[in-house]
Amino acid sequence: MKIKIICPRWPEGSIWRHFIFRFPYLSLTTLAALTPEDVEVTIEDENVQEINYQDQPDLVAVSIITPLANRGYAIADQFRKLSIPVVMGGVHATWMAEEAGQHADAVVLGEAEKVWPRVIADFRKGSYQRIYREESRPDLQNLPVPRRDLLKKRVYFFTNTMQISRGCPFQCDFCSVTAFFGHTCRLRPLKEVRKEVELLLKEKNFIFFMDDNIIANPAYARDLFSLLKEYRIKWLSHASVNIAENDDLLKKAGESGCYGLFIGFESLSQKTLQDHHKTTNRVDRYREFVKKIHDQGIGIEGSFIFGSDEEDPSVFQQVVDFCEETKIDAAVFAILTPYPGTRIYEQYTREERIISRNWDLYDMNHVVFRPKRMTIEQLQEGHDLANQRFYSYPSMLKRFWPLRRSHQVFLPSNWGMRRAWKFLAKSTLRG
Known about the structure:
Elements: E1 2-7, H1 26-34, E2 40-45, E3 59-63, H2 69-81, E4 86-89, H3 91-95, H4 97-101, E5 106-109, H5 116-125, E6 131-133, E7 161-162, E8 165-166, H6 176-181, E9 186-187, H7 190-200, E10 206-209, H8 218-229, E11 234-238, H9 247-255, E12 258-266, H10 270-275, H11 286-295, E13 299-306, H12 315-325, E14 330-335, H13 343-350, H14 376-390, H15 393-399, H16 407-426
Parallel strand pairs: 1-2, 1-3, 3-4, 4-5, 5-6, 7-10, 10-11, 11-12, 12-13, 13-14
Antiparallel strand pairs: 8-9
């Protein structure tokens, strides 16, 4: 039996289509690792290679997040025209199963560990189900090592990505990932984490932990950082800003080789954070926290969301000013996006505020809903100008002086984002 696992490309008008520092999706390599050894499996990531429609696999698996859904459907339709069955999964397929089912022979809802072997067995017998759902969440013990060997060579910035936990204790109403993995943090045994770390260090001394919040369980995080300190390693991950409230944990992160954290500040308004149920963030301590994190040699990629109901057009300059004054190393300025499966999607649907369900636009860089205190045009233009200003040379010079150890990571990413934004600004793709 031959199985092809596919990730669709980002839409042409998305900034992420043109950001050159790519890394592979763990969903692809993990699914390949879950495939029985007697099955021939290949991976094709359309962001770095063309899809081969001529090699006639027995089954195609397409994994989709919302902004990749339309392209994923087109790929699935093409294979089905060739009489090749398609199974579809991922975050978007989970929340929009009926829609995804119009383009696939079967749809997998939720995480794949328990379901995927059953899917393959059923397709081998020729008697598959239309919907596969596992009600219980998989335990993270004895996970197979992702099949990184199947990735196309020399096309990614790096391939050393791994995951040590799933789920997040927070309940932000705009977050589809937490809704997918749950609000309880599940953890991998540190003994197994050590084995995979040692395997990755044979390739490069750099690892990106793809966890939603690497400090969700502080006791586990402390033990993890002690483990990582044993190796000469540089690592990045996601963490909540309250890591700065725990001096010992923050120090251990820096000593263990943490060079950067993606941190969800989201807003400079405490009221907006409360409205989104992001109650752990303390806006009045943001500047203090940024300094404490920087003092440990850890860079910050800050996430800020534009378009919440309390915000007016003054928010764009306020946020960029804050990022420059505190020397935030990199930033994702995102437009609030009502992803299927989130509470914000349900709210905006009830209020009839969603203006487009063209999934290509759900990349956090296009306005797909009607904001309250600014026009659609003001939100789009303010977002675009904020990104262009932040990734301008004067802003980069202000933020990157004096130099810190983490800048070896964030200077290239700033250049890559500047390059991508300049390309979009010069093209007609933003329309």
